From TrEMBL:
Gene Ontology biological process: cysteine biosynthetic process from serine
TM segment ranges: none
Domain of life: Bacteria
Protein family: Belongs to the cysteine synthase/cystathionine beta-synthase family.
Pfam families attached to this UniProt entry: PALP
Keyword list, A-Z: Amino-acid biosynthesis, Cysteine biosynthesis, Pyridoxal phosphate, Transferase
Ranges of residues in domain Tryptophan synthase beta chain-like PALP: 7-282
Protein name: Cysteine synthase
PROSITE patterns per record: CYS_SYNTHASE
Pathway: Amino-acid biosynthesis; L-cysteine biosynthesis; L-cysteine from L-serine: step 2/2
Length: 295
Protein backbone atom coordinates (compact mmCIF):
# COMPACT_ATOMS: atom_id res chain seq x y z
CA UNK A 1 0.00 0.00 0.00
CA UNK A 2 1.41 3.46 -0.91
CA UNK A 3 2.44 5.58 2.07
CA UNK A 4 2.73 8.91 0.25
CA UNK A 5 1.52 10.61 -2.91
CA UNK A 6 5.09 10.16 -4.15
CA UNK A 7 4.60 6.40 -4.13
CA UNK A 8 1.97 6.83 -6.86
CA UNK A 9 4.46 8.29 -9.34
CA UNK A 10 5.23 5.86 -12.16
CA UNK A 11 3.80 2.47 -13.10
CA UNK A 12 1.40 4.23 -15.47
CA UNK A 13 -0.81 2.11 -17.74
CA UNK A 14 -0.11 1.11 -21.33
CA UNK A 15 -3.26 0.95 -23.47
CA UNK A 16 -3.64 -0.22 -27.05
CA UNK A 17 -5.00 1.98 -29.83
CA UNK A 18 -8.30 0.41 -30.86
CA UNK A 19 -9.48 2.94 -33.44
CA UNK A 20 -6.81 5.28 -34.80
CA UNK A 21 -4.26 2.63 -35.73
CA UNK A 22 -5.52 0.87 -38.85
CA UNK A 23 -2.46 -1.27 -39.64
CA UNK A 24 -3.44 -4.81 -38.52
CA UNK A 25 0.20 -5.91 -38.39
CA UNK A 26 1.28 -3.13 -36.02
CA UNK A 27 0.41 -2.73 -32.35
CA UNK A 28 0.31 0.87 -31.13
CA UNK A 29 0.31 1.42 -27.38
CA UNK A 30 -0.17 4.68 -25.50
CA UNK A 31 1.76 5.20 -22.24
CA UNK A 32 -0.67 7.25 -20.14
CA UNK A 33 1.59 9.58 -18.15
CA UNK A 34 -1.35 11.78 -17.19
CA UNK A 35 -2.13 9.09 -14.62
CA UNK A 36 0.74 10.33 -12.46
CA UNK A 37 -0.54 12.23 -9.38
CA UNK A 38 0.68 15.57 -10.72
CA UNK A 39 -0.97 14.82 -14.05
CA UNK A 40 2.03 14.45 -16.33
CA UNK A 41 5.22 12.62 -17.26
CA UNK A 42 7.16 15.38 -15.48
CA UNK A 43 6.39 13.92 -12.05
CA UNK A 44 9.18 11.41 -12.70
CA UNK A 45 12.09 13.82 -13.35
CA UNK A 46 10.82 16.32 -10.78
CA UNK A 47 10.95 13.65 -8.08
CA UNK A 48 14.34 12.34 -9.18
CA UNK A 49 15.88 15.83 -9.43
CA UNK A 50 14.69 16.91 -5.97
CA UNK A 51 15.32 13.61 -4.20
CA UNK A 52 18.81 13.19 -5.71
CA UNK A 53 19.79 16.80 -4.92
CA UNK A 54 18.69 16.34 -1.30
CA UNK A 55 20.57 13.05 -1.00
CA UNK A 56 23.76 14.66 -2.35
CA UNK A 57 23.36 17.67 -0.07
CA UNK A 58 23.11 20.05 -3.03
CA UNK A 59 19.94 21.55 -1.56
CA UNK A 60 18.27 21.71 1.85
CA UNK A 61 15.11 23.15 3.39
CA UNK A 62 16.95 26.48 3.61
CA UNK A 63 17.48 26.59 -0.16
CA UNK A 64 15.44 28.90 -2.37
CA UNK A 65 14.77 26.97 -5.59
CA UNK A 66 13.87 28.49 -8.93
CA UNK A 67 12.99 26.85 -12.24
CA UNK A 68 11.83 28.02 -15.66
CA UNK A 69 9.01 25.88 -17.01
CA UNK A 70 6.37 25.78 -19.70
CA UNK A 71 4.02 24.15 -17.23
CA UNK A 72 4.11 20.45 -16.47
CA UNK A 73 7.54 20.39 -14.84
CA UNK A 74 6.50 23.35 -12.73
CA UNK A 75 3.39 21.61 -11.47
CA UNK A 76 5.38 18.50 -10.61
CA UNK A 77 8.12 20.50 -8.88
CA UNK A 78 5.54 22.53 -6.93
CA UNK A 79 3.87 19.35 -5.65
CA UNK A 80 7.06 17.51 -4.76
CA UNK A 81 8.88 20.54 -3.30
CA UNK A 82 6.06 20.99 -0.79
CA UNK A 83 6.15 17.33 0.20
CA UNK A 84 9.85 17.78 1.05
CA UNK A 85 9.28 21.16 2.76
CA UNK A 86 11.12 23.18 0.10
CA UNK A 87 10.38 26.67 -1.22
CA UNK A 88 10.31 27.12 -4.99
CA UNK A 89 9.71 29.94 -7.46
CA UNK A 90 8.48 28.89 -10.91
CA UNK A 91 8.96 31.14 -13.94
CA UNK A 92 6.66 30.88 -16.96
CA UNK A 93 5.70 32.90 -20.04
CA UNK A 94 2.61 35.01 -19.33
CA UNK A 95 0.60 33.23 -22.05
CA UNK A 96 0.69 29.93 -20.15
CA UNK A 97 -2.78 28.53 -19.44
CA UNK A 98 -4.33 29.75 -16.20
CA UNK A 99 -4.97 26.16 -15.08
CA UNK A 100 -1.22 25.61 -14.89
CA UNK A 101 -0.56 28.82 -12.99
CA UNK A 102 -3.41 28.12 -10.57
CA UNK A 103 -2.27 24.54 -9.96
CA UNK A 104 1.28 25.61 -9.12
CA UNK A 105 0.01 28.26 -6.72
CA UNK A 106 -2.39 25.75 -5.18
CA UNK A 107 0.65 23.62 -4.26
CA UNK A 108 2.20 26.66 -2.58
CA UNK A 109 4.77 27.71 -5.18
CA UNK A 110 5.59 31.30 -6.08
CA UNK A 111 4.80 31.84 -9.77
CA UNK A 112 6.46 34.59 -11.81
CA UNK A 113 5.17 35.32 -15.31
CA UNK A 114 7.58 36.69 -17.91
CA UNK A 115 6.84 38.33 -21.25
CA UNK A 116 5.31 36.02 -23.84
CA UNK A 117 7.36 37.88 -26.46
CA UNK A 118 10.52 36.09 -25.30
CA UNK A 119 8.83 32.74 -24.58
CA UNK A 120 10.37 30.01 -22.44
CA UNK A 121 13.84 31.26 -23.41
CA UNK A 122 13.07 34.52 -21.60
CA UNK A 123 11.84 32.60 -18.56
CA UNK A 124 15.10 30.64 -18.56
CA UNK A 125 17.14 33.86 -18.75
CA UNK A 126 15.17 35.33 -15.80
CA UNK A 127 15.83 32.27 -13.65
CA UNK A 128 19.53 32.20 -14.54
CA UNK A 129 19.84 35.86 -13.55
CA UNK A 130 18.37 35.15 -10.09
CA UNK A 131 20.77 32.23 -9.66
CA UNK A 132 23.76 34.38 -10.57
CA UNK A 133 22.78 37.48 -8.60
CA UNK A 134 20.43 36.53 -5.77
CA UNK A 135 21.65 33.16 -4.50
CA UNK A 136 18.81 31.05 -5.88
CA UNK A 137 19.42 27.40 -6.80
CA UNK A 138 18.14 26.01 -10.09
CA UNK A 139 17.56 22.29 -10.59
CA UNK A 140 17.82 23.08 -14.31
CA UNK A 141 15.86 20.37 -16.06
CA UNK A 142 17.61 21.29 -19.34
CA UNK A 143 21.08 20.34 -18.05
CA UNK A 144 20.36 18.01 -15.13
CA UNK A 145 21.18 14.35 -15.75
CA UNK A 146 18.70 13.42 -13.01
CA UNK A 147 16.01 14.45 -15.52
CA UNK A 148 16.71 11.73 -18.08
CA UNK A 149 17.87 9.23 -15.46
CA UNK A 150 14.34 9.24 -14.01
CA UNK A 151 13.15 7.63 -17.23
CA UNK A 152 16.13 5.30 -17.36
CA UNK A 153 15.17 4.06 -13.89
CA UNK A 154 11.39 3.90 -14.30
CA UNK A 155 9.67 4.62 -17.63
CA UNK A 156 11.98 2.52 -19.80
CA UNK A 157 11.85 -0.57 -17.56
CA UNK A 158 8.05 -0.30 -17.32
CA UNK A 159 7.69 -0.21 -21.12
CA UNK A 160 10.08 -3.13 -21.58
CA UNK A 161 8.19 -5.19 -18.98
CA UNK A 162 4.68 -4.30 -20.17
CA UNK A 163 5.46 -5.11 -23.82
CA UNK A 164 7.27 -8.28 -22.73
CA UNK A 165 10.34 -6.99 -24.55
CA UNK A 166 8.51 -6.85 -27.88
CA UNK A 167 8.68 -3.07 -28.40
CA UNK A 168 10.21 -2.16 -31.78
CA UNK A 169 9.63 1.62 -31.86
CA UNK A 170 9.46 4.31 -29.16
CA UNK A 171 7.86 7.66 -30.02
CA UNK A 172 8.08 10.80 -27.87
CA UNK A 173 7.61 14.51 -28.33
CA UNK A 174 10.78 16.45 -27.56
CA UNK A 175 10.80 19.38 -25.14
CA UNK A 176 13.51 19.24 -22.50
CA UNK A 177 14.27 15.85 -24.16
CA UNK A 178 14.61 14.04 -20.82
CA UNK A 179 11.88 11.53 -21.70
CA UNK A 180 13.41 10.47 -25.00
CA UNK A 181 16.99 10.45 -23.68
CA UNK A 182 16.23 8.25 -20.67
CA UNK A 183 14.00 5.81 -22.50
CA UNK A 184 16.42 5.55 -25.42
CA UNK A 185 19.34 4.81 -23.11
CA UNK A 186 17.46 2.04 -21.28
CA UNK A 187 15.66 0.48 -24.25
CA UNK A 188 18.78 0.41 -26.46
CA UNK A 189 20.58 -1.47 -23.68
CA UNK A 190 17.88 -4.14 -23.85
CA UNK A 191 17.74 -4.28 -27.67
CA UNK A 192 19.93 -2.01 -29.80
CA UNK A 193 17.54 -2.43 -32.75
CA UNK A 194 14.66 -0.59 -31.07
CA UNK A 195 14.03 2.58 -33.07
CA UNK A 196 13.78 5.84 -31.12
CA UNK A 197 11.61 8.44 -32.84
CA UNK A 198 11.53 12.07 -31.69
CA UNK A 199 8.77 14.52 -32.56
CA UNK A 200 9.32 18.22 -33.31
CA UNK A 201 7.02 20.99 -34.57
CA UNK A 202 7.27 22.21 -38.14
CA UNK A 203 8.63 25.71 -38.63
CA UNK A 204 6.20 28.40 -37.42
CA UNK A 205 4.11 25.84 -35.51
CA UNK A 206 3.44 26.42 -31.81
CA UNK A 207 2.75 23.21 -29.88
CA UNK A 208 2.94 23.41 -26.06
CA UNK A 209 5.46 20.89 -24.77
CA UNK A 210 7.26 20.33 -28.09
CA UNK A 211 10.13 22.54 -29.18
CA UNK A 212 12.61 22.96 -31.97
CA UNK A 213 15.25 24.76 -29.93
CA UNK A 214 17.58 27.48 -31.22
CA UNK A 215 21.12 26.12 -31.03
CA UNK A 216 22.08 28.28 -28.03
CA UNK A 217 19.11 26.97 -26.01
CA UNK A 218 19.37 23.29 -26.98
CA UNK A 219 19.12 21.24 -23.76
CA UNK A 220 22.56 20.11 -22.60
CA UNK A 221 21.15 16.66 -21.76
CA UNK A 222 20.23 16.07 -25.42
CA UNK A 223 22.38 13.61 -27.36
CA UNK A 224 21.34 13.41 -31.01
CA UNK A 225 22.98 9.99 -31.40
CA UNK A 226 20.28 8.50 -29.16
CA UNK A 227 17.48 9.45 -31.59
CA UNK A 228 17.18 7.37 -34.76
CA UNK A 229 14.59 9.49 -36.53
CA UNK A 230 12.89 12.87 -36.08
CA UNK A 231 9.39 13.43 -37.42
CA UNK A 232 7.86 16.88 -37.68
CA UNK A 233 4.19 17.66 -37.05
CA UNK A 234 2.28 20.86 -37.73
CA UNK A 235 0.23 22.77 -35.21
CA UNK A 236 -2.98 21.88 -37.06
CA UNK A 237 -2.02 18.20 -37.26
CA UNK A 238 -1.31 18.09 -33.50
CA UNK A 239 -4.57 19.91 -32.71
CA UNK A 240 -6.74 17.64 -34.83
CA UNK A 241 -5.11 14.51 -33.46
CA UNK A 242 -5.60 15.71 -29.87
CA UNK A 243 -9.33 16.03 -30.58
CA UNK A 244 -9.39 12.60 -32.25
CA UNK A 245 -7.62 11.02 -29.28
CA UNK A 246 -10.41 12.20 -26.99
CA UNK A 247 -13.32 11.46 -29.31
CA UNK A 248 -12.16 8.16 -30.79
CA UNK A 249 -9.85 6.59 -28.19
CA UNK A 250 -11.26 8.18 -25.02
CA UNK A 251 -7.84 9.62 -24.19
CA UNK A 252 -8.07 13.23 -22.98
CA UNK A 253 -4.61 14.72 -23.38
CA UNK A 254 -2.69 17.85 -24.30
CA UNK A 255 -1.48 18.99 -27.67
CA UNK A 256 2.02 17.50 -27.44
CA UNK A 257 0.37 14.09 -27.08
CA UNK A 258 -1.64 14.81 -30.22
CA UNK A 259 1.66 15.56 -31.93
CA UNK A 260 3.33 12.35 -30.80
CA UNK A 261 0.24 10.33 -31.75
CA UNK A 262 0.15 11.86 -35.23
CA UNK A 263 3.81 10.90 -35.69
CA UNK A 264 3.23 7.39 -34.31
CA UNK A 265 0.34 6.79 -36.70
CA UNK A 266 2.36 8.07 -39.63
CA UNK A 267 5.12 5.68 -38.61
CA UNK A 268 2.69 2.76 -38.23
CA UNK A 269 1.55 3.17 -41.83
CA UNK A 270 5.10 2.57 -43.06
CA UNK A 271 5.76 -0.65 -41.12
CA UNK A 272 5.17 -4.24 -42.21
CA UNK A 273 4.98 -5.20 -38.55
CA UNK A 274 5.97 -3.80 -35.18
CA UNK A 275 5.11 -2.73 -31.65
CA UNK A 276 5.07 1.05 -31.14
CA UNK A 277 4.89 2.76 -27.75
CA UNK A 278 3.97 6.45 -27.81
CA UNK A 279 4.09 8.75 -24.79
CA UNK A 280 0.87 10.51 -23.79
CA UNK A 281 2.57 13.03 -21.59
CA UNK A 282 -0.28 14.75 -19.71
CA UNK A 283 -4.02 15.34 -19.34
CA UNK A 284 -6.25 17.62 -21.35
CA UNK A 285 -7.86 19.37 -18.39
CA UNK A 286 -4.93 21.79 -18.04
CA UNK A 287 -5.63 23.14 -21.54
CA UNK A 288 -9.36 23.87 -21.22
CA UNK A 289 -8.88 27.66 -21.15
CA UNK A 290 -6.58 27.57 -24.19
CA UNK A 291 -9.44 27.03 -26.65
CA UNK A 292 -7.94 23.72 -27.78
CA UNK A 293 -11.18 21.83 -27.20
CA UNK A 294 -13.59 24.56 -28.34
CA UNK A 295 -13.93 22.85 -31.71
Amino acid sequence: MPHSIIDLIGNTPLVESKVLNTNPNVKLYFKLEGQNPGGSVKDRPALNMIKSALERGDISKKSQLIEATSGNTGIALAMIARIYGLNIELVMPENSTKERVQTMRAYGATVTLTSSDVGIEGARDYAINKVQNEGFIMLNQFENDDNWKAHYKSTGPEIWKDTKGKITHFVSSMGTTGTIMGNSTYLKEQNKNIQIVGVQPTDNSSIPGIRKWPKEYLPKIFDASKVDQVLEVSQDEATQMTLKLAKEEGIFAGMSSGGSTAAALRLAETLKSGVIVSIICDRGDRYLSSGLFDN
